[in-house]
Design a protein that fits this description.
Blueprint: E1 13-16, H1 26-44, H2 48-62, H3 66-69, H4 71-78, H5 82-88, H6 99-109, E2 112-117, H7 121-131, E3 139-142, H8 155-162, E4 170-174, H9 177-186, E5 190-193, H10 195-198, H11 213-224, E6 229-233, E7 248-253, H12 256-265, E8 271-274, H13 280-283, E9 290-295, H14 304-311, E10 318-326, E11 347-354, E12 360-367
Parallel strand pairs: 1-2, 1-4, 2-3, 4-5, 6-7, 6-9, 7-8, 9-10
Antiparallel strand pairs: 10-12, 11-12
Helix pairs in contact: 1-2
This protein binds magnesium ion.
C-alpha cells in the first residue's frame, strides 16, 4: 500500500514547521511546564505547584493566538526575562530524529524550502543559534511578522503575498491539528502531519484532490447515482467520501490514525469509523440499503478471493458498487489487477471510466441478484 506516497515531481515548494516537526518539543514542554513555573514561583514566593496552577489558565486563555507564541508578552505578563532564560537553556534544543537528514536531502531536491513557525522571532533566533536551521532553508518566517498564527485563516494569504507559492504544488508539514486544518482550508495541496500526530502510514499523505483524477472520477460517478446512503471502505482521509452528495455517508478505514485525521479534516461530513468491510454490518443495520459502495485505490493489495470475501456479503443490500481496475499492463507495484469476474453472477458492469493520466479505470457495477 504505497501508492499515495508524496509525489515529489508535483511539488515545487516545501513549507516546514519548526517546533514539534523539525525540533524536539521536549525543550518547549520542559521550558513552559517546568522551568518557567519554577522561575515564576521563585520570583513570587510561591511553591512550584501553586505557580503552575496559577499559570495554567493564563496559558490556556492565549492558546492559538499570537500572544501564546510571543515572548515579549510573557516577559511582561510574568515579570520574567523569557529570552534570557531561554538562551541559558539552549543546550536542550535539538532536532527530532531524522529531521536533519531530511533537510539535507531536501536541499538536493531543488525545491524551494520555507520554514514557517509560530515561534517569536527572538525564539527563532535563539534556536537558530543552537541548531543552525537557516542554512537548510531559502527563507524563514515567523508568523509574528504577519500578525496571525498559522491556525488563523488570515495568515495564509499574507504568507503567499510575501512568498509566492502555488497551493496545489506545495507540501506543508506540521504537527498541529488546528494548523493543518487551516492550511487544508486554504487549499494547500499536500499536507503531512508528522507521523506522531496521527500515527498513520506515510502513504496516507493527503495527495491533492486535483492531482488524483481517479478521486474526481469516483466522486462524479457516485454523485451521478444520486445515492441516499454511501459507504466507502478504505476511505483514507475522506477526500472522496466528503465530496459525495448523500444524506448518509459512512467512511471505514482500518487505520485508526487515518480515521482520526478524517474526523478532524471533515468534521460532520460523514461517520468516520475504524474498521474494514466486515465492520459495515456492525455499524449499519442489516435492513438498511446501501445505495453506493465505494472501494477504490487500495483493493489491488487484496487477492481476488480476499476482495470477493469483502464485497460479496454486502451485495444483498447494495445497489451500486464503484471499484477501480488497474490496467493489465499497469505497474507491478499494484499487486493484483482485478477483472472482477467474481462479481458477474451478482452484478453487471454499467460503465468504465478512464482516470486521466493513470493506469486505471473506475467501474460502476449495478447489483442484479
Ligand atoms: Mg509545531
Amino acid at each position: 500500500m504505497n501508492t499515495v506516497r508524496i509525489d515529489w515531481s508535483k511539488i515545487d515548494t516545501v513549507l516546514l514547521d519548526m517546533d514539534g516537526t523539525l525540533l524536539d518539543l521536549r525543550f518547549d514542554n520542559w521550558f513552559w511546564q517546568e522551568l518557567i513555573p519554577r522561575r515564576y514561583a521563585a520570583a513570587n514566593g510561591l511553591s512550584p505547584p501553586d505557580a503552575l496552577e496559577l499559570l495554567k489558565p493564563k496559558f490556556h486563555a492565549t492558546r492559538g493566538t499570537m500572544q501564546w507564541y510571543c515572548i515579549d508578552y510573557w516577559s511582561r505578563e510574568l515579570g520574567l526575562d523569557i529570552a534570557r532564560i531561554k538562551r541559558a537553556a539552549l543546550d536542550l534544543v535539538g532536532y527530532l530524529p531524522g529531521a536533519e537528514d531530511f533537510l539535507v536531502k531536501l536541499k538536493d531536491s531543488g525545491k524551494r524550502r520555507i520554514l514557517v513557525t509560530n515561534a517569536h522571532p527572538t525564539t527563532l533566533a535563539i534556536k537558530e543559534q543552537q541548531v543552525g536551521l537557516a542554512v537548510h532553508f531559502d527563507a524563514c518566517y515567523s508568523t509574528h511578522t504577519f500578525d496571525a498564527p498559522k491556525e488563523n485563516a488570515a495568515f495564509w494569504p499574507r504568507l503567499q503575498a510575501a512568498e509566492p507559492f502555488a497551493v496545489e504544488r506545495t507540501l506543508f508539514v506540521d504537527d498541529s491539528l488546528p494548523v493543518l486544518r487551516t492550511a487544508h482550508g486554504f487549499g494547500i495541496g499536500w499536507l503531512r502531519a508528522v507521523r506522531r500526530v496521527f500515527g498513520f502510514d506515510p502513504w496516507h499523505v493527503s495527495a491533492p484532490y486535483s492531482c488524483r483524477p481517479y478521486k474526481r472520477s469516483a466522486v462524479e460517478l457516485a454523485n451521478s447515482l444520486r445515492p441516499v446512503t454511501v459507504v466507502e471502505v478504505g476511505c483514507g482521509l475522506g477526500d472522496i467520501l466528503s465530496r459525495v452528495n448523500a444524506a448518509e455517508r459512512y467512511g471505514f478505514d482500518i487505520d485508526t490514525g487515518v480515521i482520526r485525521a478524517a474526523r478532524f479534516l471533515h468534521p460532520g461530513a460523514a461517520r468516520w469509523i475504524h474498521g474494514d468491510a466486515s465492520s459495515v454490518a456492525l455499524v449499519i443495520q442489516r435492513d438498511r440499503r446501501i445505495d453506493c459502495l465505494i472501494m477504490v485505490n487500495w483493493i489491488h493489495a487484496l487477492s481476488p478471493q480476499q476482495l470477493a470475501a469483502s464485497i460479496l456479503p454486502l451485495l444483498p443490500r447494495t445497489r451500486y458498487v464503484i471499484l477501480d481496475a488497474i490496467d493489465p499492463d499497469g505497474p507491478a507495484s499494484y499487486r493484483f489487477k482485478h477483472d472482477f469476474s467474481f462479481l458477474s453472477p451478482f452484478a453487471e458492469r454499467l460503465s468504465s471510466t478512464r482516470a486521466a493520466g493513470e493506469p486505471r479505470s473506475l467501474m460502476v457495477f449495478k447489483v442484479t441478484a
